[in-house]
């Protein structure tokens, strides 16, 4: 019997077959904050298979008991302590240097003991510099070879996927030496967010929006990813990355392509990713000989106020050079050279130490062709706006004009709101829960393909090159707690538009 | 100063119908459900009034003592044609259920004694999707049993499984579970089913499917919040773990029902075996 006869009509979606997750960087922050809690939550929904184990690998000296203690800390006071205790018993730990072949030998032995003929998912929760070491180690130990359908081997690679085009190509080349592309899952946690996935349903599951989803009806698109936090403990990484690498190359480009893509012919991984790739290929270079980087604004936060507290400027943060030119804010104007989007600018902005934490897509529609109410209403009619809130309040809102009650003809904008959190009566899953489960099941729809990563870097790398070549020793400043620098406002004002005040 | 609550996108209308002794607890359930899911609630207690008392409390419209002959009229008036509607059927006459099923998209049965409902269900399933809250209580048990069959060794051993033992506080739920297995497993006719009623027990206390040296067992742990699942082949334990049991509060069960929008063929298959 090839198929499970009891699966038809189950209300809980399929769980993966027997699986072992091997986390490299098991003692690190990502494992503690995201991965272990996500696994516990998946277990509460009965989404983990009966034969399931986690093997942690890291330099930190620790044994199985230590790793299990770390799990207990990660899940805090679980709602179901028996469940947490049971899951904990399936956690194992291998300490060691990632370049030590003995580590991979012990991993092979541990896998044989706990995994049997099941699948193995390797998770690289380690600094990018160590990716190559682990991939080579796995390859040399023969741990990347698949054995039948149930003995699959997959690898999840965390961002940043390279630091520029050359390094992304090199990393892809290295991965492809040891894994087929179908085994590689490049994670972008934005794609695991419910609203981002719902964007595809909104566009392609409804007949009424797609006909107006083009340059005839849309004036422009704004995509904002704002954080209130500063650089925190990530100065070492952020000094070499900056906002363009940290947020735009991956998250914002993914979101942009979901807004801009053509309809896929089916909801399959390849079909969806092909159409996203088409959209990315339509993005025009961010740097050109005539205008240079004039469509890109970078800035750094200075001293200011956030959440009622004074906060230091970026250059005063621990671990940051006082001559740093790393950008903590970036705003871009992006054009897509496509039939659908000709003449429709996409404005992207992201930054740290902004007034509030929010990520949204705002699609602003064109005004009516004739303002027939201009004699009776003093203000111009506000354009229709479709807002997709990605975080923190996941949902969709539509703004349109309505008549104010009364004998006079007065117009006022009103909002229709759909909120994920309060509509369906179920908790919205965390992105890592969705993505871990998808990788275990073998669904790569929500993961970045190698060509997407490289093409995105091909757009962003020339900006970095131009900034480096400029020799500038300062970048525009914005006060912490403000919505970025004046230069970002000017970027839009030049086009006769304004950023939304969020 | 607190902001006025934002009106939410509404996803469904729930029409609850039943005799007074079965609808008394439903109001609190509706109100609890409304806090989590954006639904319209209509609670109808059957009686003998042609002009019954109608009240609105929060998101719940309550009609007390409605004469059954006006049930269809009331539901037709209050349902919204543009929203899916679900009937939570807590008991009543056969023809009332049949009439209600013509007006809603989904009927969730929940009578104290399901015998009549289960006889009617196959007939109304052609016009409205049908389910039963007893079936909803089995979701997690079914899922855990199915997970055993994700393991290749279990599928190989499937034909040799010959006995099914179920200990249950609710014998009707046990029958449904057995019916589901019989509908799904090949050669299930050979399955020797033994059901033990556990007075005061949980809906299901334990399930064991065995034969040919294999044993697939599920057992509710004493804390009632977890189910222990154990898979044994040839005398050895192949897989064992603890999984969460279902939240059996009525609002949680109804919330699950609201997420199912299609016809429940697995339930209908199980019911066919039960009614056989």
User: How many distinct helices of chain B?
Assistant: 11
Strand order of the largest sheet of chain B: 3-4-2-1-5-6-7
Shape designation of chain B: elongated
User: What value does the average pLDDT of chain A take?
Assistant: 92
Relative strand content of chain A: 15-25%
Would you identify the regions of chain B where 5 or more consecutive residues have pLDDT less than 50? Answer: 1-6
Helix coverage percent of chain B: 25-40%
Number of strands of chain B: 13
C-alpha end-to-end distance of chain B? 62 Å
> Can you write the helix and strand succession of chain A as a string?
EHEHHEHEHEHEHEHHEEEEEEEEHHHEH
Based on secondary structure, the structural category of chain B is: alpha/beta
**Which protein chains are joined by the largest interface, and how many residues does each one contribute?**
A-B, 41 and 53 residues
The SS-based structural class of chain A is: alpha/beta
In terms of per-residue confidence, which ranges of chain A show pLDDT below 50 for 5 or more consecutive residues? Answer: none
Number of helices of chain A: 13
Describe the structure.
The complex is a heterodimer of chains A (502) and B (276). Chain A is α/β, with parallel strands linked by helices and 502 residues long. In chain A, helix 1 (29-44) packs across helix 2 (64-75), helix 6 (165-178) runs antiparallel to helix 12 and helix 9 packs parallel to helix 12 (450-470). In chain A, 34% of the residues lie in helices and 21% in strands. The termini of chain A are far apart. In chain A, strands 7, 8, 9, 10, 11, 12, 13, 14, 15 and 16 form a ten-stranded mixed sheet that branches. Chain A contains 13 helices and 16 strands. The longest helix of chain B has 14 residues, at 171-184. Chain B is 35% helix and 31% strand. In chain B, the strands form two sheets. In chain B, strands 3-4-2-1-5-6-7 form a seven-stranded mixed sheet, with helices on both faces. A six-stranded mixed sheet of chain B has the order 9-8-10-11-12-13. Chain B is elongated. The termini of chain B are far apart. Chain B is an alpha/beta fold and 276 residues long. The chains are: A alpha/beta (502), B alpha/beta (276).
């Amino acid at each position: 019997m090839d198929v499970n006869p009891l699966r038809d009509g189950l209300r809980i979606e399929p769980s993966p077959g027997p699986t072992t997750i091997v986390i490299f960087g098991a003692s690190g922050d990502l494992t503690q904050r995201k991965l272990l809690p996500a696994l516990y939550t998946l277990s509460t929904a009965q989404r983990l298979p009966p034969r399931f184990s986690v093997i942690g690998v890291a330099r930190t000296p620790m044994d199985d008991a230590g790793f299990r203690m770390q799990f207990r800390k990660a899940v805090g006071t679980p709602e179901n302590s028996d469940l947490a205790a049971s899951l904990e018993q399936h956690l194992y730990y291998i300490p060691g240097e990632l370049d030590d072949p003995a580590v991979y030998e012990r991993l092979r032995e541990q896998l044989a003991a706990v995994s049997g003929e099941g699948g193995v998912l390797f998770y690289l929760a380690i600094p990018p510099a160590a990716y190559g070491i682990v991939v080579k180690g796995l390859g040399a130990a023969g741990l990347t070879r698949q054995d039948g359908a149930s003995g699959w081997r997959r690898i999840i690679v965390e961002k940043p996927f390279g630091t520029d085009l050359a390094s992304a190509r090199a990393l892809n080349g290295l991965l492809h030496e040891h894994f087929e592309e179908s085994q590689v899952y490049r994670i972008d946690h934005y794609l695991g967010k419910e609203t981002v996935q719902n964007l595809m349903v909104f566009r392609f599951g409804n007949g009424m929006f797609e006909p107006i989803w083009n340059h005839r009806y849309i004036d422009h698109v704004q995509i904002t990813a704002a954080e209130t936090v500063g650089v925190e403990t990530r100065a070492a990484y952020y000094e070499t990355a900056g906002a363009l690498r940290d947020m735009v190359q991956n998250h914002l480009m993914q979101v942009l392509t979901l807004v801009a893509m053509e309809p896929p012919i089916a909801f399959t991984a390849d079909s969806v990713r092909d159409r996203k790739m088409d959209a990315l290929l339509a993005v025009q270079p961010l740097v050109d000989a005539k205008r240079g980087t004039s469509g890109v604004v970078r800035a750094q936060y200075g001293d200011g106020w956030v959440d009622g507290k004074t906060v230091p400027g970026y250059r005063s943060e621990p671990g940051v050079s006082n001559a740093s030119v790393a950008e903590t804010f970036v705003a871009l104007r992006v054009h897509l050279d496509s039939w659908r989007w000709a003449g429709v600018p996409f404005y992207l902005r992201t930054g740290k130490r902004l007034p509030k934490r929010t990520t949204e897509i705002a699609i602003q529609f064109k005004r009516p062709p004739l303002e027939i109410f201009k004699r009776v209403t003093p203000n111009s009619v506000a354009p229709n706006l479709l807002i997709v809130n990605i975080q923190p309040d996941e949902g969709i809102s539509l703004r349109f004009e309505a008549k104010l009650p009364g004998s006079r003809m007065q117009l006022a904008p009103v909002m229709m709101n759909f909120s994920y959190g309060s509509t369906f009566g179920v908790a919205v899953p965390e992105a890592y829960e969705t993505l871990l489960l998808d990788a275990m099941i073998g669904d790569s729809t929500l993961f970045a393909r190698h060509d997407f990563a490289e093409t995105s870097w091909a757009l962003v790398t020339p900006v970095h090159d131009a900034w480096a070549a400029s020799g500038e020793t300062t970048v525009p400043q914005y006060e912490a707690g403000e919505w970025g620098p004046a230069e970002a406002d000017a970027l839009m004002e030049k086009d006769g538009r304004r950023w939304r005040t969020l | 100063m607190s902001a006025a609550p934002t009106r939410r996108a509404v996803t469904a209308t729930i029409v609850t119908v039943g005799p007074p002794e079965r609808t008394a607890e439903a109001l609190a359930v509706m109100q609890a459900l409304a806090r989590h899911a954006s639904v319209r609630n209509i609670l109808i207690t059957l009686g003998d009034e042609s002009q019954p008392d109608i009240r609105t409390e929060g998101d719940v419209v309550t009609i007390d003592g409605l004469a059954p002959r006006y049930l269809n009229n009331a539901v037709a008036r209050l349902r919204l044609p543009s929203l899916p509607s679900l009937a939570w059927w807590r008991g009543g006459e056969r023809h009332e259920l049949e009439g209600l099923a013509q007006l809603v998209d989904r009927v969730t049965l929940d009578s104290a004694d399901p015998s009549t409902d289960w006889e009617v269900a196959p007939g109304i399933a052609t016009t409205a999707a049908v389910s039963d809250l007893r079936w909803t209580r089995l979701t997690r048990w079914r899922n855990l049993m199915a997970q055993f069959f994700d393991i290749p060794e279990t599928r190989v051993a499937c034909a040799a499984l010959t006995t099914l033992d179920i200990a249950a506080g609710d014998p009707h739920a046990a029958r449904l579970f057995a019916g589901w297995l019989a509908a799904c497993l090949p050669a299930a006719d050979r399955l020797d089913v033994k059901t033990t009623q556990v007075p005061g027990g949980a809906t299901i206390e334990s399930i064991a499917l065995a034969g040919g040296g294999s044993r697939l067992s599920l057992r509710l742990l004493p804390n009632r919040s977890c189910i222990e699942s154990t898979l044994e082949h040839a005398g050895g334990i192949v897989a064992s773990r603890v999984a969460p049991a279902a939240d059996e509060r009525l609002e949680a069960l109804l919330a699950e029902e609201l997420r199912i929008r299609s016809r429940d063929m697995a339930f209908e298959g199980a019911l066919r075996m039960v009614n056989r």
